[in-house]
Design a protein that fits this description.
Blueprint (H helix, E strand, L loop, with lengths): L2 H8 L3 H9 L7 E2 L6 E2 L4 H13 L4 H7 L4 H52 L3 H5 L3 H20 L16 H8 L4 E10 L17 E8 L6 H15 L6 E8 L5 E8 L4
Parallel strand pairs: 4-5
Antiparallel strand pairs: 1-2, 3-6, 4-6
Length: about 270
């Protein structure tokens, strides 16, 4: 029978039979040398059924090719082994799923704890004294900062989340940072008591700029997380509509005074 008739018998597409022919799984009984038409016999339908069942069970083409001419007993053993491996894989997937749910729950608890710590730190931070802002603006800043964590908690996937309490590295580490060749100094201030004393001198940032704020704080400056979060949020507030990238580095002062450097990433032009 023709390939179309045989495909109809096997309830498949002729292209499937051509594929099996190319893979040396099911060759036509004969091929017309003049027309190239493939012809099959009805008995070959049993071989097609064997191929299809092995393929649906997940056997590879090479595995199917090696099993096709084996006895039913050998093929049955191959099915048993395939089932065993699939059961092992399924069990492993169940273990990974359970581990994922546990780790995801732990991560969300960690984010919630950090959110609460940040919120408490900012609520007890004297932003009016340090930055000269009123309570209405500061509460808005707190809402924006804690909202970042709330957004994280609302997401199903928290992979890649990292947060650390800002540390205060020593002067040598700070100097290494200040000397990075891809950064240029655009402003500095030394010996100040509060940021509000000079905030308006550097707060107007260029659109598209990438900035790093480096502070060397004396021992009287506490609550580093609240200080850094408020500083960054305040600059965003003072530069609406501008595209800018900001980061804040807090370091220890080695002379008991407060110091500040504003660095901008150099452009290619």
């Amino acid at each position: 029978m023709t390939i179309k008739d045989f495909a109809r018998l096997c309830d498949c597409h002729p292209q499937t039979l051509r594929y099996y022919d190319r893979e040396n799984l099911l060759r036509p009984r004969s091929v017309d040398p003049w027309t190239g038409y493939r012809h099959y016999s009805e008995e070959q339908a049993l071989r097609f059924v064997r191929i299809r069942n092995l393929q649906q069970a997940g056997f590879t083409i090479d595995e199917i090719r090696s099993l096709l001419d084996k006895s039913d007993a050998v093929i049955s053993e191959a099915f048993v082994e395939k089932i065993r491996k699939m059961e092992e894989t399924l069990a492993r997937v169940h273990e990974i799923h359970a581990s994922y749910l546990c780790e995801a729950a732990q991560m969300k608890r960690k984010i919630q704890e950090i959110r609460n710590l940040v919120a408490h730190s900012m609520q007890t931070f004297n932003a009016q004294q340090e930055f000269g802002i009123d309570d209405t603006l500061y509460q808005s800043i707190i809402s924006n900062v804690t909202g970042y964590f709330d957004d994280m908690l609302a997401q199903e996937n928290t992979d890649g989340f990292q947060w650390e309490e800002p540390d205060l590295p020593d002067a040598s580490q700070r100097d290494q940072f200040l000397q990075q060749p891809d950064l240029t100094l655009v402003y500095e201030k030394h010996g100040w008591h509060y940021v509000k004393e000079f905030l308006n001198e550097f707060s107007d940032l260029k659109d598209g700029g990438e900035y790093t704020l480096v502070f060397a704080l004396n021992a009287q400056k506490k609550q580093a997380a609240a200080f850094a979060n408020t500083m960054l949020a305040l600059l965003l507030h003072l530069n609406p509509g501008k595209k800018r990238t900001l980061q804040c580095q807090l370091t220890q002062s080695d002379d008991g005074k407060n110091h500040f450097w504003l660095l901008q990433k150099k452009t290619d032009s």
